[in-house]
């Protein structure tokens, strides 16, 4: 099965822009760029901009219920912590998620993934974390793994130690995570990554370290939610433990940025979170100057109901002053690095043929034209899966 995408006005290959070119695909892989041969199927990009499918490397896309009731509180100026005290926050979603059956969670998540695909995401990481107890965390990860089998999007499952249950203290819950949950997740082979919300009122640095070390022992790669609301030493831990990525980093300063730059930690920035919480954005400029690899992702969760990576690129450019090429690279190639994936996130020979054709003429239009879907066609593993903005049936 071969496919030729011709008449590409501008191509972003994961690193740079190429004008007036074509892509030749065979058996789900990119074969060549700029060489036109005979193909079973030909798509005319009509002079438009083409790029790799978005890699959304940080989501909490499996949950029940919604938290729109928090919005007026956010507008009033209540903090994330105050909202949790009023009955919102993670613990509200945990209650809803515990009540929901695996089937219901699967159905709702599959629907969300379709919306993400239409907006150009071809690889999506999904974290557990709204179950908290063993039974419910396993329920969530089993659901994610079942969805993974049949979904068009490539799914990467992560176990996340997300919050302390209301009837437990942090120390005993950390022990429970280490002794009960992580071994079960590992035995059932349910997650590629182990993640922890390292934050005041959640897991401290020591508890986070214990969790990530146990995860590592059990074959899961470490990730960490770091420096989101306070700077308590999580990015330092990320560097020490050789985390694949440290995520959020809103409060990370010069010192933390240096520490991470000296290791191979990918800095995953999630600008939709400060957007919905009205908090400062991470210092992307400082990170780029320090030579850090930056990835971008949605952080899609009931607090931050964002499924569209185009919006993330827009926020990255306007609010974090990232150059458009850097923002596109961060949301494709670097986001694949944040998931320890090879041969994904770029349009290069031998890479997975995950390609999006837009309805705009150049890469600058992705951050420039805000508020509507700019993705017209999605090609996943060399097959057309979205046509004219709709999933092909
Ligand atoms: O990454 N920071 C921790 N977890 C999520 C939010 C979860 C929630 O509020 O439901 C995040 O932003
Ligand atoms: Fe998160």
Q: How is this structure best described in words?
A:
The protein is α/β, with parallel strands linked by helices and 393 residues long. The chain folds into 2 domains: 2-52 and 345-391, Roll (Urease, subunit C, domain 1), CATH 2.30.40.10; 54-337, Metal-dependent hydrolases (TIM Barrel). 36% of the residues lie in helices and 23% in strands. The strands form 2 sheets. Strands 1, 2, 3, 4, 5, 14, 15, 16 and 17 form a 9-stranded mixed β-sheet that branches. β15 (375-380) and β16 (383-387) form a beta hairpin. The longest helix is centred in the middle third of the chain and has 18 residues, at 170-187. It is globular, with a radius of gyration of 20 Å. It starts with a strand and ends with a strand. Bound molecules: N-(iminomethyl)-L-glutamic acid (NIG) and fe (iii) ion. Fe (iii) ion binds at residues 58, 60, 225, 299.
What order do the helices and strands come in, and which of them pair?
Elements: E1 2-12, E2 17-26, E3 29-33, E4 41-44, E5 49-52, E6 54-56, H1 71-76, H2 80-85, H3 89-99, H4 102-118, E7 121-127, H5 134-150, E8 154-161, H6 170-187, E9 193-196, H7 205-217, E10 221-226, H8 234-240, E11 245-248, H9 254-261, E12 266-269, H10 272-277, H11 284-289, E13 294-296, H12 309-320, H13 324-330, H14 333-337, E14 355-358, H15 365-368, E15 375-380, E16 383-387, E17 390-391
Parallel strand pairs: 1-4, 1-5, 6-7, 7-8, 8-9, 9-10, 10-11, 11-12, 12-13
Antiparallel strand pairs: 1-2, 2-3, 5-14, 14-15, 15-16, 16-17
Helix pairs in contact: 4-5, 5-6, 6-7, 8-9
């Amino acid at each position: 099965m071969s496919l030729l995408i011709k008449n590409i006005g501008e191509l972003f290959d994961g690193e740079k822009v190429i004008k007036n070119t074509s892509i030749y695909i065979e058996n789900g892989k990119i074969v060549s760029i700029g060489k036109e041969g005979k193909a079973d199927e030909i798509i005319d990009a009509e002079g438009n901009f083409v790029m790799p499918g978005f890699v959304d490397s940080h989501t909490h896309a499996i949950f029940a219920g919604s938290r729109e009731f928090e919005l007026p509180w956010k507008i009033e100026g209540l903090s994330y912590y105050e909202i949790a005290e009023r009955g919102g926050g993670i613990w509200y979603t945990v209650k809803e998620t515990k009540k929901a059956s695996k089937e219901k969670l699967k159905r709702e998540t599959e629907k969300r993934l379709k919306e993400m695909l239409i907006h150009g995401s071809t690889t999506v990481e999904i974290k557990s974390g709204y179950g908290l107890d063993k039974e419910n965390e396993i329920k969530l990860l089993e659901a994610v793994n079942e969805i993974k089998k049949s979904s068009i999007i490539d799914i990467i499952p992560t176990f996340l130690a997300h919050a302390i249950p209301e009837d437990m203290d942090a120390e005993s819950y950390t022990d429970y995570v280490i002794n009960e949950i992580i071994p079960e997740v590992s035995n059932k082979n349910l997650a590629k990554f182990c993640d922890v919300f390292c934050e005041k009122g959640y897991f401290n640095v020591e508890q986070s370290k214990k969790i990530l070390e146990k995860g590592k022992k059990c074959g899961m790669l470490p990730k960490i939610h770091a420096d989101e609301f306070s700077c308590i030493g999580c990015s330092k831990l990320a560097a020490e433990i050789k985390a694949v990525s440290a995520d959020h980093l809103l409060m990370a300063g010069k010192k933390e940025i240096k520490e991470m730059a000296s290791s191979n930690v990918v800095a995953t920035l999630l600008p939709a979170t400060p957007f919905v919480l009205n908090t400062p954005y991470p210092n992307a400029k400082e990170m780029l100057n320090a030579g850090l690899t930056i990835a971008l992702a949605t952080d899609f969760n009931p607090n931050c109901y964002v499924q569209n990576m185009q919006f993330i690129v827009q926020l990255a450019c306007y609010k974090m002053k990232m150059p458009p090429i850097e923002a596109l690279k961060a949301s494709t190639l670097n986001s694949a690095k944040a998931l320890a994936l090879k041969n994904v996130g770029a349009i290069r020979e031998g890479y997975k043929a995950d390609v999006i054709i837009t309805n705009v003429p150049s890469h600058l239009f992705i951050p420039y034209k805000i508020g509507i879907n700019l993705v017209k066609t999605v090609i996943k593993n060399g097959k057309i899966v979205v046509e004219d903005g709709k999933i092909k049936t």
